[in-house]
């Protein structure tokens, strides 16, 4: 995100406050019932990536300045590449579940 940070500084836009760092923790000390599974984490990441792709597309379409639109296009492309990598990983690990086929009422079942 150095691109966005540099642009904000150049344009005189104040940078948001950086949140405090989180304390170190031992992942093995968290009880199994309270931990998110790898599948849950992967699905949450994929949802965040999908929403980021939509956000980048929206910002590209609303940009008046070409340089800003191109910056959002770059972010969009990076998110699409990341999303495809996550999808491939989820398929390999068996975390991607395909919903059952939809048969409309009255349609023949083959």
Structural features, described:
The chain has 110 residues and is mainly alpha-helical. It has helices at 2-11, 38-62, 66-93. Helix 2 packs antiparallel against helix 3 (66-93). The longest helix has 28 residues, at 66-93. 2% of the residues are buried.
Keyword list:
110 residues, mainly alpha, Ferritin, flat
Blueprint of the fold:
Elements: H1 2-11, H2 38-62, H3 66-93
Helix pairs in contact: 2-3
Mean residue pLDDT: 90
Number of helices: 3
Supply the CATH class of the domain at 37-95: Mainly Alpha
Name given to the CATH homologous superfamily of the domain at 37-95: Ferritin, core subunit, four-helix bundle
| Low-confidence region ranges | none
Name the helix and strand elements from N-terminus to C-terminus, one letter apiece. Answer: HHH
Largest sheet: none
Strand content: under 5%
Cα separation of the termini: 51 Å
CATH fold-level name of the domain at 37-95? Ferritin
Structural class: mainly alpha
Q: Please state the CA-atom Rg, rounded to the nearest Å.
A: 20 Å
How many extended strands?
A: 0
CATH architecture of the domain at 37-95: Up-down Bundle
- Residues in helices, as a percent range: 55-70%
**Global morphology:** flat
Give a brief outline of the structure.
The protein is an all-alpha fold and about 110 residues long.
